Amino acid sequence: MSWSNALFYGIGIDNYQHLRKLNYCANDAMAVAEAFAQKISNITSSTIAGYSTNTTTIEIAQVLKEIQNKRLDDEDLLIFYFSGHGCSVGGVDYLACSDTNPKEISDTAINTSCIIDAIAETKVGTSILIFDSCREEVGKSIDVSQFGRYTSELARRRGTIVFFSCSPEELSYENPKLEHGLFTYSLIAAINQEKVHTTINLDQSIVRRVSELCKTNNYPSQRPYTVVAPLQKAALDIFTGKVIIENDHERRTCIILAGPSNSGKTSLGQYIASRYGFLHVEMSSFAYKRFQNKPDDFNGNMQEFMEEIVWQENDKAIIAEDLINSNLTNQNMVICGPRATEEIETLFAQRWNIIPVYLYANASIRYKRHFGGDKEQTRFNLSYKEFIVKDMKEYDWGLAKMATIDSFKFNFNEYELKAAFSTFDKLAEKHHLTPVDTKDF
User: Fold this and answer.
1) Which residue spans within 305-352 are E strands per DSSP?
2) For the residues of 44-101, what is the DSSP string, one character each?
3) Which of 190, 210, 235 marks a domain boundary?
């Protein structure tokens, strides 16, 4: 298979009216466009927003409208690249345009959901977002450290591959000697030098290269992170459109992260994925995929949908079965969010090297995280009572029983995430897991 149509939209913004100016974003966008053009002969690069250093909110909105009006199909590829400032406000991710005002983010920046929605309208078979963002703190009420969480969730639900230049809690860096951002420089090197270009292979190569650049140039940690959705895309060569399948399925290592909502499973999963080169899988994405096809007359929430529809028509292990049946590659996985004991039993029954971890934090801490630390409600709307009721229901599904299974390693996450990461690193060492950034190129 090769792509029938391949489209590339690249935007790099250096000049900001209200934010710190950047240096190499436009150069990054042009270089990435050239790298893809060398690998995909029929790719079309858009220059509507182009590589202007002064791209405004209106201009990017026009690009999204153009994308939305495209009519593509399963054999087509669409790539959207952005280099510039990125931030999170009220739990929502935004890309900063040249005219973005920190006091009016929602009106003067681009919500990443608008990009994902526009791409979804095209019906394209494979879409890839590449964000070299999160450059610095841009305002007291604006949080760059959380950039990516919201977009990751949306991408998994809508079936979009996303490459992030850094993990949450980190910043992305530019280098004057390279005249590029560290991430984009590493992305281009991976495109040009790696023999296999699956999403996971590229991700691991980029992580190694960025880590080495950080060490040699004395930058703080910057760990790129990749979301793969749907899961089958993990084995997809993004240049040829071919699926690359390896056969040593039974040698896979699988880390299972269980625990109540907002205990930090996704954050730890992202850390494991970027540090150890695992494929990050959220079981909720498979539940949401079924939820998208719910009966027209069903008006309940996700929990009610699982109890009243999915588990009435299927075994309670069905979400785990969806996961297993969708994964074509032998890639090591970190699986976040099993809720039912039947799901655990099904995963344990696979001939994998299983490392089960139970992540816990008390209800008051998790409820605060439910709002992203803000006192005012944002995109979430559960009251404390509703949050506890949701908790109790999920404990009854099997979360309480999982906590008592001897093979699960308990990990508390009630303080800084670094403590939970450190605890896992000790467990990983016992299981002889090797960090990606210590492996040779």
Assistant:
1) 333-336
2) EEE-SSTT-TT--HHHHHHHHHHHHT----TTEEEEEEEES-EEEETTEEEEE-TT--
3) 235
* Whole-number average pLDDT of the chain: 88
**Residue 369: per-residue pLDDT:** 82
Instruction: Kindly state the average pLDDT of the residues 244-258.
Output: 77
Q: Are residues 318 and 201 in the same domain?
A: no
Q: Of all helices (H) and strands (E), which one includes residue 343?
A: helix 341-348
Contact 282, 266 (CB under 8 A): yes
Question: Bigger pLDDT: 413 or 50?
Answer: 413
Instruction: Tell me the chain's radius of gyration from C-alpha atoms.
Output: 21
Backbone angles phi, psi at 159, to 5 degrees: 75, 55
Q: Are residues 198 and 273 in the same domain?
A: no
Which residue range forms the structural domain that includes residue 21? Answer: 5-235
Residue 298 scores a pLDDT above 50: yes
* 65 and 151 together in one domain: yes
CB 284 within 8 A of CB 154: no
Residues 170 and 275 in one domain: no
pLDDT digits (tens, 9 = 90+) for 119-168: 999 999 999 999 999 866 555 555 555 788 889 989 998 999 999 999 87
Q: Give the whole-angstrom CA distance, residue 188 versus residue 33.
A: 10
Could you report how far apart the first and last alpha carbons of the chain are, in Å? 28
Report pLDDT for 377: 40
**pTM for the predicted model, two decimal places:** 0.88
Could you tell me if 229 and 343 lie in one domain?
no
61-90: b or e for each residue (b if 16 or more CB lie within 10 Å)?
eebbeebeebebeeebbbbbbbbbbbbbbb
Instruction: Report the CATH number at residue 190.
Output: 3.40.50.1460
User: Between 440 and 198, where is the model more confident?
Assistant: 198
